[in-house]
Design brief:
This protein has two domains: 128 residues, Cathepsin B, Chain A (Alpha-Beta Complex); 142 residues, Four Helix Bundle (Hemerythrin (Met), subunit A) (Up-down Bundle). The chain is built from eleven helices and nine strands. Strands 1, 4, 5, 6, 7, 8 and 9 form a seven-stranded antiparallel sheet that branches. The chain has a two-stranded antiparallel ribbon with strand order 2-3. Helix 7 runs antiparallel to helix 11, helix 9 runs antiparallel to helix 10 and helix 10 packs antiparallel against helix 11. This is BtrH N-terminal domain-containing protein.
């Protein structure tokens, strides 16, 4: 058995921030989960639908691994990424780091992980790996999935090799903090501004505050979709609140990040943004509840109300990001 010593196998709420926390604590850098999420400019929004999809997808963050790239660039961390189409080379990349005493982040499809309670393909999942033996890999996942967990090497190989939406080519990565690392608190304002700029200037109408407006138009019609809309509505509500988002489609995490930033930055713009994101978080939880109720009852009026709240959310978040962009 090969195990990296000194690992703090603490599961958090979201998979990518959980992994970042494991890798950075091993480097001697302790940051809260909201701070990891915010310094990575992780907040976003996407309304995605296509003819190939059974049901639309609502996402509340930037695409997988962008958070890690943003965090590394903002803090001046050395990010080493391995990608390959070869399963043999992919394993060598991981084993070499662990053999050298360094934990590794992996992007993979959670469907193939032995410990996962819900069998759904999601190739944007991220875990930290800190050991292995002849049969199993030792991982850190979210608290919801068990924190310190293990899966078979065969299952891990399948998870890393999976293809489809959001999949990466056996992606693995390590982080190294320089000795002269600047205080992370000095980077909160650039991270907030970058997040606000992306949210306020989406390249297409499905993203940012414009994406929330699109959701406001489309959600009231969700019960009219073919297939099994009741099941899809229940799943959509669950994903918004329970599937590693920290609740309220990541808005709780960003609200708490802004509150933590207020300890270091004295700004009326920051206080305005925090107050509006506290309001937005509560509204998102209400939207999820209305979608769930519509799935249970089949009453479209719940979706009409959800659409009205989404229209309000587009305004609230737009105003919040405008305030934050003025920092």
């Amino acid at each position: 058995m090969t195990i990296v010593e000194g690992i703090d196998a603490r599961g958090m709420q979201h998979c990518e921030t959980t992994t970042l926390g494991v890798l950075l604590r091993h480097e001697g850098l302790e940051l809260s989960e909201p701070m990891l999420f915010g310094l990575g400019s992780g907040l976003g929004f996407v309304y995605w639908d296509s003819k190939a999809m059974d049901f639309p997808f609502l996402g509340g963050r930037v695409k997988p691994f962008e958070l890690t790239r943003n965090l590394a660039a903002g803090l001046g961390l050395e990010l080493v990424v391995g990608e390959t189409t070869s399963p043999r080379k992919a394993w060598q990349n991981v084993a070499a780091s662990i053999d050298a005493g360094r934990p590794v982040g992996l992007q993979l499809d959670s469907y193939h992980l032995d410990y996962f309670r819900t069998r759904v393909h999601f190739a944007g999942h991220v875990v930290a790996m800190y050991g292995y033996d002849a049969q199993d890999a030792y991982l850190v996942d979210t608290a919801q999935q068990g924190g310190a967990v293990s899966t078979s090497l065969a299952g891990l190989a399948r998870a890393r090799a999976e293809r489809g939406p959001m999949a990466a080519r056996h992606r693995s990565f390590t982080l190294t903090a320089p000795r002269d690392l600047a205080p992370p608190q000095d980077r909160v304002v650039p991270a907030i501004r970058a997040c606000a700029h992306a949210f306020l200037n989406p390249p297409i109408a499905n993203l940012g505050y414009r994406g929330i407006e699109k959701a406001a138009e489309r959600v009231p019609k969700w019960l009219q979709r073919g297939g099994h809309p009741h099941e899809h509505l229940a799943r959509a509500a669950l994903l918004m609140e329970k599937a590693g988002t920290g609740g309220a489609l990541f808005r709780n995490l960003y609200r708490d990040f802004l509150a933590e930033c207020a300890q270091y930055v004295d700004s009326g713009h920051l206080r305005t943004g925090h107050g509006l994101y506290a309001e937005a978080a509560a509204l998102w939880t209400r939207v999820a509840a209305l979608i769930a109720t519509a799935g249970e009852s089949g009453d479209e009026r719940n979706l009409v109300e959800a659409g009205s709240l989404l229209r309000e959310l587009s305004r609230v978040e737009r105003d919040a990001m405008r305030a934050l962009s003025a920092l």
